Structure formats: structure tokens, C-alpha cells
Amino acid sequence: MRRIHLYAAVAALAAGLVSAAKAEGLHAVGPLAGYACMNLKLTDKELQDKSLAVPVYDGPSKESSRVGNAAAVVIAKSPLHVVNGFAELLFPTGREVWIEADLLTAYHSESDPNAHCTPSLMSNGKPGFGP
After folding, report:
1. For residue 113, pLDDT beyond 70
2. Less Cβ around it within 10 Å: N or C end of the chain?
3. Greatest distance between any 2 Cα atoms in the chain
């Protein structure tokens, strides 16, 4: 009987810790030096097209393995590191990937001209965007 109560107490404690961690949420820990936010050079119509996928590669060529798709805002090496027409990015997993450099433009927000973007290390240890 004591063992059942002990398991129940441990489970309740674990549930409380998980709830506290979820309540804290994902947040920026600090800026990522050597990186800058950039936008994909896409029209509004292209941005709304859910079937449009902008590939990112394992290396600086189309012959490299395709590892995923770029988001509308990406984290690029700064100053921009271009090899063979491909720019180096930091993927959300923390992996370095490559995209065709002519698909990138300086970061801007259509809805808020005063908005800024800071590539950041997030509380989960992965790159993201901070305030």
C-alpha cells in the first residue's frame, strides 16, 4: 500500500513540474551573434500559396541533399556567406543549411515598418526569433 502512495506522490510531483515548465513557455535566452533575420523574396500571392515550397540543402548546390523547406523569415549568416550562389542559413533544428542566395532579401515587416527581428537562442536550446 505504501508503494502505491509513493508512486502517486511521485506522479503528482512530476505532473506539477511538467505543468510549471509548460507555463514558463518557450522564450529567447539571448541573441545569436553572427546571424541576421532575412525574408524570402516572395510576392504576397506566393506567400499565401500553401503548395509553394522553397528548398534548403545540405550543401551549397542543388546536387546536395534537400533537407527541408525555408520559412518566410529565416536566420542567415551575417555577413551573408555565399558559396556557388547559395547562402548559409541556420535551420530551426540548429543545423547549417543552404538556400539560393537570390531568394533572400533584408528583413522587413509589411504590417509594422518599425518591427525588428533578432535571431536568438531559445530556452529549448534551438535557434529562433527573439524580441
Report:
1. yes
2. N
3. 69
